[in-house]
Amino acid sequence: MNLQQLEHFLVLVETQSFSRAAAKLHLTQPALSRSIQALEETLGGRLLERDKGKTLTALGELAIVRARRIRVELAELRRSASLLADYAGGTLRLGLGPTPTAILSLPLLREMKERYPAIKLLLSGGTPEMQVQELREGAVDALVVHRNHIPADADLHLRFFPRTPLGFVVRAGHPLAGRHALDFDALRRYAVAASGRAISDEVMHRLNAYFGPPVHFIDAIQYQSNDIQALVDLVRTTDTVFFGVLQVAQPAIARGELVQMELRPELALSSQFVFVTLEGKTLPPALLRLGELCMQYLSGPLDPHSG
């Protein structure tokens, strides 16, 4: 068994076709077939049910997981070689959810430019499902996303960040600014802006309970976007009410442009994000440093409430 045979097997599974896999690998179909057969002989069993649409056998299911991990480790080894020598160069690729994008993008880009100018930093977004797939395929090195968006799969390693508070924010001078009570009719009157992925089911249930039945908080959300900064700018320039991670609005709050609503009774809600890598993957020093920076910028007051 060799790495080339494992790569042939991976491409065949990904393309679901001997002809497409052979073309992608620049091999003849007989040569690809011989490579797969040699791998099967080494492992002692069939990897594919060739008479059933090339579905994986039990051995094939086990082999594909290990083969993907080996592919990622090999790519990581190549990258790490250039990153180990005092962060001398290379590329780090980080997938971010919408809220981490709003909080982390500028600080991370600035930090890497100032302290590690030889390293390329690529930040990307996407749906949670797409981002997890990219992580498994080695297209990104790590993810920073909401904990609820990550499946409980054995090949994923999660490092949890401290919880960060959720709340309502309005522009300075807004009719609701300074009020300690907030009713659902007022929310409906001014409309709410929130991230399309920011509100977990648990947070939604607690918001419904806070405002009382038969309220459905989702009905008050009129503007949704995964561009969180655009939502903050909307709230800063209109009477729209922002609901989400307060840290996103903190710069505008510090400038006096936005105001956090201090509600009574307190609406104690929080969200939690995670730093996701592949289990068993050796992380290069620069990626470890990137994780530390994410922890620094995402850290907030601990909150016992879930979100």
TrEMBL record:
<keyword id="KW-0805">Transcription regulation</keyword>
<dbReference type="Pfam" id="PF03466">
    <property type="entry name" value="LysR_substrate"/>
</dbReference>
<dbReference type="Pfam" id="PF00126">
    <property type="entry name" value="HTH_1"/>
</dbReference>
<dbReference type="InterPro" id="IPR000847">
    <property type="entry name" value="LysR_HTH_N"/>
</dbReference>
<dbReference type="GO" id="GO:0003677">
    <property type="term" value="F:DNA binding"/>
</dbReference>
<keyword id="KW-0238">DNA-binding</keyword>
<dbReference type="GO" id="GO:0003700">
    <property type="term" value="F:DNA-binding transcription factor activity"/>
</dbReference>
<dbReference type="GO" id="GO:0032993">
    <property type="term" value="C:protein-DNA complex"/>
</dbReference>
<keyword id="KW-0804">Transcription</keyword>
<dbReference type="InterPro" id="IPR036388">
    <property type="entry name" value="WH-like_DNA-bd_sf"/>
</dbReference>
<dbReference type="InterPro" id="IPR005119">
    <property type="entry name" value="LysR_subst-bd"/>
</dbReference>
<protein>
    <submittedName>
        <fullName>LysR family transcriptional regulator</fullName>
    </submittedName>
</protein>
<comment type="similarity">
    <text>Belongs to the LysR transcriptional regulatory family.</text>
</comment>
<feature type="domain" description="HTH lysR-type">
    <location>
        <begin position="1"/>
        <end position="57"/>
    </location>
</feature>
<dbReference type="InterPro" id="IPR036390">
    <property type="entry name" value="WH_DNA-bd_sf"/>
</dbReference>
